[in-house]
Amino acid sequence: MAADNSAAAPAPQPGLRDNRFAVRLESLLVLVILIVALSILSPYFLSVSNFLNILLATSVIGVLGFGATFVIAAAGIDLSLGSVLALSGVVGALSVNALGLPWPVAIVTCLAVGAFCGLINGVLNAKAGIPAFIVTLGMLGVARGLGLVFTNGQPVYGMPDPIVFLGQGRPFGVPMPVFIFIAVAIVAHFVLAFTRFGKYAQVIGDNEGAARAMGIQVDRHRIALYVVSGLLAGLAGLLFLARVNSGDPTAGLNYELTAITAAILGGTNLFGGRASVLGTLIGALVMGVLQNGLNLLAVSSFYQQMAIGAVLVLAVWLDQINRARGQR
Amino acid sequence: MRTKSISFGLSAALLAASLASPASAQDNQVYGVLLKTLSNPFWGAMEQGIEDGTKEAGVEYFLQAVESDQAAEPQLNTCNTMLQRKPAVMITAAINSTILLPCLKQANEMGIPVVDLDANLDHEIAEKAGVKIAFTIGSDNTAAGGQGADFMAEKLKGKKGSILVIEGLAGNITGQKRAKGFADQLAKVAPDLKVVASLPGDWDRQKAANITNDTMTANPDLVGIFCANDTMALGAVESVYAAGKGGEIVVIGVDGNTDAVKSIKAGRLTASVAQLPYLVGKQAVEKAKEVLAGKTVDKFTYVQTLVLTKELMDAGTDPALQYVK
């Protein structure tokens, strides 16, 4: 809300401060109303186990959405998220399954592969000057293809127990991916909203020229943001791998679009400058709750896609109405 | 200023709600059915069979599917959600052999028997993952491929030439079984027909059409094409006609779906090895009822497949034809 004019301030600290917990109120409202409505409509909705289900179902998309948020903050885009997720998971799975390396290697490999893909995206975008849309669209194909090549199209089944625990373990009755999801949300929110790294990203997204004038090293910063988004895609790949106990080269098809939807639903501006991880969390939950509720009500998957599309447009529209009023 | 937003949001929720039918009361004899997608006539026929089966068995069912037959993780999430309703049995057609295992394991732990619809699971892997499959029901895809080979050999008797195999989505076990079943049987019954290429068409009509074009260019002596499903066969046959080789090249698909039936009747597509998903769905329910009644059933049930040709349909005497939708 206040981020729009803050970039003009030479010292970003005070100007961006109000952006810390900026969450599109409409998204939160939609989420609450959905929860209330579904509690009334379905006798199976309002229960702890179902809410854990929703969080579990949202964890992979959520983590991916955080990655999307970082890149979009600086007016970038990452279309390779779903493919990088699959490639990371596959390589991680192969490292322990085919190469017989100890289980921690799978974790490191997933994250490293993701970060490396992000690095390539970032360098090609920032240094070679290829538009982000094209670079990451290219990576979407390359990473997906590589995953299929490495596995010959077959899922790599069977992970060591500690990895399976990451995906299927339930300490205190809560699925492990939910813990990881929440932890990543907190860290990512802190980084984006409270550190110079995150604030500069939004300054770049708001006005790149001003960012350069301020002395921000825009290119290096961009690269770092793609590395973060790749890293989170790698983490999402690890979660996916652990959840289903197999590295699936067809995993995460079209997830980049869902991840970007979550970010926008949460109030992040697709054209940069305003971004919130907390918002993305809410955006992802709106979709998760909607999907879960419609599943419980046994609504056909055809309507589910319509509903999510409609909610997205509605939330952004409400936001625009409120902004127009605020400016008057 | 906020009130208007609230009313907007409320209408959003109501919109979502009005799409839904009212939830039925809790009932322990509700069968949970999880399919891949409904945007495919094959699964539509399966659903019809399930519906008729449950009606005859006097039980209720609720059915879920996901947006596409590649939406693996959404299917796992849907599966988890279905368990909230504590169905009496979970009849699932898994998108791949491993994706649903965590959910099915939980179903077992809740005392819910698991049925492998359309033979998508690997019993060995499932057992390792701690999943006990009550039974598998579906079509024998290897045999279906073999039936296709027998028909191809019969149709091209005394001829020599190249054969193209268009496989399904890379890594999909159904497509692999069909392609392999075809190739193995063809090598046995028709040594003069040589498979020159076996390429993944990803279940995609357009891709199959392109593969057909390329292969016809590279192999002018192409005499037959076997596709792992009808959608791809319909793409392949269009390429064949476009190249002016209509009627010369034998094109066979698998599934027996509505479009393929039309094409065969019109004399374009040569044949389709029809599965009978209606029967698969119906028998799945019948057997699930037996399992719930404590009876033992066969671990594997294969429902027959049928080579659909213009002659067979014009004659209309085969009793299995009534299940072809």
So what's the CATH class of the largest domain in chain B?
Answer: Alpha Beta
The helix-and-strand class of chain B reads alpha/beta
N-end to C-end Cα span of chain A: 14 Å
- Average pLDDT over all residues of chain B: 88
Major pleated sheet of chain B: 6 strands, parallel
Series of secondary-structure elements of chain A, N-terminal to C-terminal: HHHHHHHEHHHHHEHHH
Q: Give the integer mean of the pLDDT values of chain A.
A: 88
**Tally of discrete structural domains of chain A:** 1
Number of domains of chain B: 2
Percent of residues in helices of chain A comes to over 70%
Strand % of chain B is 15-25%
Rg calculated over all Cα atoms of chain A: 20 Å
Which second-level CATH architecture of the largest domain in chain B applies? 3-Layer(aba) Sandwich
Key terms:
heterodimer, A: 328 residues, mainly alpha, ABC transporter involved in vitamin B12 uptake, BtuC, two-stranded antiparallel ribbon, 15 helices, 2 strands, 74% helix, disordered N terminus, B: 325 residues, alpha/beta, Rossmann fold, six-stranded parallel sheet, six-stranded mixed sheet, 12 helices, 12 strands, 46% helix, 20% strand
What does this entry look like structurally?
The complex is a heterodimer of chains A (328) and B (325). Chain A is mostly helical and 328 residues long. Chain A is built from 15 helices and 2 strands. In chain A, helix 4 packs across helix 14, helix 10 packs across helix 12 and helix 14 runs antiparallel to helix 15. In chain A, 60% of the residues are buried. With 325 residues, chain B is an alpha/beta fold. In chain B, 46% of the residues lie in helices and 20% in strands. Chain B is built from 12 helices and 12 strands. The longest helix of chain B has 17 residues. The radius of gyration of chain B is 22 Å and the shape is elongated. The N and C termini of chain B lie far apart (56 Å). The N terminus of chain B is likely disordered. Chains A and B meet through helix 3, helix 4, helix 12, helix 14 and helix 15 of A and helix 1, strand 2 and helix 3 of B.
